[in-house]
Amino acid sequence: MSKKVLITGAAGDTGRAAVKESLAVGLDVRAMVRKIDERSDALAKQGAEVVVGDLNDINTLVSALEGAEAAYFVWPVAPGLINATVNFALAAKEAGMKAVLNLSQRSADRNSTSDSCRDTYISEQVFNWSGIPVIHLRPTYFLEWLLYPWQLPFVQQGVLRMPVGKGRHSPIAAADQARAIAALLKNPEGHIGKTIPLSGPVEMDHEQMAAELSEALGRKIVFQDLPIEEYIASLKQMGVPQYVLQHFSGAMLDYQHGHMSGADNNIELITGKRPMTVGEYAKLHADVLNAKQ
Ligand SMILES: NC(=O)c1ccc[n+]([C@@H]2O[C@H](COP(=O)([O-])OP(=O)(O)OC[C@H]3O[C@@H](n4cnc5c(N)ncnc54)[C@H](OP(=O)(O)O)[C@@H]3O)[C@@H](O)[C@H]2O)c1
Q1: How many angstroms is it from 15 CA to the middle of ligand 1?
Q2: DSSP string, 105-124
Q3: How far, in Å, is the centroid of ligand 1 from the Cα of 14?
Q4: Is residue 268 part of a domain?
Q5: Whether pLDDT at 71 is above 80
Q6: Ligand 1 close to Cβ of residue 74 (< 6 A)
């Protein structure tokens, strides 16, 4: 019988990809969603058992975790992470979970001006105090940024718009994180108690990223740097929630100051295959990225 695992946030970017990769490595996947819709139908079609659960309601978590040996925990960039963590840690402890993968973030930091970065740091500590076997994953910026509703229209018009100056980074795709998540859910031994940074294969600044996007998409993409306040004001106009805006204000400053620099090879060490480059990701999503406005 294959090992049963619970994947929360299964309709979201990393959760959806983690379901796909976990099924691919032969795990028996229970996918937790907030509601049944076309996204959950797609998960069921792939072979996952779909359950409805709420990280704010511990009793839904107890039943979602029943019979599972390992679980993936993710919360969106939104208020409520600490409450969700406490609920999940308690339910996982009661269920005798052998491994919990916690999707943290590279910029988890109790001294950050971003509420999200501070909450994420506290969430890691709560999991640690709980005594459950936990692995913290700290990814850097996702390549999915290119597809987020406040970035995509600009990329489609040939502009990579980020208030990060010469800040360097090595962005990572959710699909590559998911391969690591699946491998760790399957074989957590040797990783329990660790905090694992996850990044893409190549560190670069945004001029270099724009050049790589231009090459991959076959048209000119120009990097546009702008003041953080101006960027945040324009995202506010697009309806980006306040908690996210507050997070970006702090995180972009950290970015400018080099907090996102560096690259690691942890995805390759865990899965045996290196993660996608910016160009490879762009080619994979060229239909959307090159779509006319
Ligand atoms: N984006 C980046 O560059 C970046 C970088 C580093 C770290 N991270 C971290 O990545 C995490 C986000 O991961 P992601 O991109 O996979 O998130 P995501 O796409 O926003 O997915 C989050 C999922 O959580 C579900 N959810 C929301 N409230 C819930 C609740 N009360 N109970 C159960 N499920 C709930 C959502 O359901 P619905 O879809 O139904 O709303 C959604 O499917 C954040 O913690 C962030 O700090 C992101």
Answers
A1: 8
A2: -TT--TT-S-HHHHHHHHHH
A3: 8
A4: yes
A5: yes
A6: yes
Distance CA 265, CA 202 (A): 10
Distance 238 CA to ligand 1 centre (A): 19
Q: Give the separation between CA 46 and CA 42, rounded to whole angstroms.
A: 6
Residue with the smallest CA separation from ligand 1 atom 34 is 9
Nearest to 248 by CA among 260, 264, 262, 265: 260
Residue 52 in contact with ligand 1 by CB distance below 6 A = no
Number of domains in the chain: 1
Pick from 6, 16, 20, 103 the residue to mutate for probing ligand 1's pocket: most ligand atoms within 8 Å of its CB.
Answer: 103
- CATH number of the CATH domain containing 195: 3.40.50.720
> Nearest Cα to 260, choosing from 268, 250, 270, 269?
250
Half-sphere exposure of 20 (CA within 13 A, CB side): 15
Domain extent at residue 194? 4-141+173-199+261-275
Over residues 99-152, the pLDDT tens digits come to 999 999 999 999 989 999 999 999 999 999 999 999 999 999 999 999 999 999
CA 160 to the chain's CA centroid? 20
**pLDDT by residue (tens digit) across 215-269?**
999 999 999 999 999 999 999 999 999 999 999 999 999 899 998 999 999 999 9
201 vs 20: CA distance, rounded Å:
22
Q: Ligand 1: which residue has its CA nearest to atom 1?
A: 142
